[in-house]
Amino acid sequence: MIEHLQGIKGEKLNQIAQIWLDANLDAHSFIDPTYWANYYDGVKKELAKAELFVFEEDGQIRGFLGTDGNYIAGLFVAKKYRGQGIGSQLLAAAKQSRSELTLSVYEKNSRAYHFYIKEGFQEENHELDKVTDEFAVNMKWTRDGGVEDGG
C-alpha cells in the first residue's frame, strides 16, 4: 500500500533513512561511501519533514519516493524488494498529483537512468555535480508526454 505523507518520525523514519543509505551505497559504487555516511544525519532530518510517497507492506517499508515541489529528490526501494514494480507504483502515485516531474540521475547509474526512460522521462541536459565530481542527467516527465499544447 502506498501512503502520501508529510512529517514522519520514529521507526518509520528510521526505516526510510536506512533504505536511503543502503540504496545509495548499492547504486552509487562509483562515489566514495563516506559521502553518503556524512550526509546521513542531515538527510534524515530532511526526510522527517519531506513530502513522501511510502510503499509499506506487512508493517515494513519497502520503498519510498521523496519530492520537493515537482522535483523528485529520490526514489529508493530496499534491495530485496527491487524488480517487483514498487518503484513504478511509487512513481505512478507521484504522477497522479502532478502534471510534470523532474529529477537528476547520475550517468553511471544506468539501471535508474533506463528505469526513468521506460517511465516516460526525457533527458533535459547533463551537468557536473561539483560535490561528487560525477556527471548527472537532468530529466523531465510531463503528463502530455512533452507535447506543447500551443496555448
Low-confidence stretches: none
The average pLDDT value, as a whole number, equals 93
Structural class: alpha+beta
N/C terminus separation: 38 Å
Strand order of the largest sheet: 1-2-3-4
Largest sheet: 4 strands, antiparallel
Beta-sheet strand percentage?
25-35%
User: What would you report as the Rg, rounded to the nearest angstrom?
Assistant: 15 Å
Tally the beta strands: 7
Briefly, what is this?
By secondary structure, the protein is of the alpha+beta class.
Task: Give your account of this protein's structure.
With 151 residues, the protein is of the alpha+beta class. It is built from four helices and seven strands; from the N terminus they run βααβββαβαββ. It has helices at residues 10-27, 33-49, 86-96, 110-118; strands at 2-6, 51-57, 60-68, 71-77, 100-106, 122-129, 134-142. A four-stranded antiparallel beta sheet has the order 1-2-3-4, sandwiched between helices. The chain has a three-stranded antiparallel beta sheet with strand order 5-7-6, with helices on one face. Strand 6 and strand 7 (134-142) form a beta hairpin. Helix 1 runs antiparallel to helix 2 (33-49). The termini are far apart. The relative contact order is 0.14. The mean pLDDT is 93.
Layout of SSEs?
Blueprint: E1 2-6, H1 10-27, H2 33-49, E2 51-57, E3 60-68, E4 71-77, H3 86-96, E5 100-106, H4 110-118, E6 122-129, E7 134-142
Antiparallel strand pairs: 1-2, 2-3, 3-4, 5-7, 6-7
Helix pairs in contact: 1-2
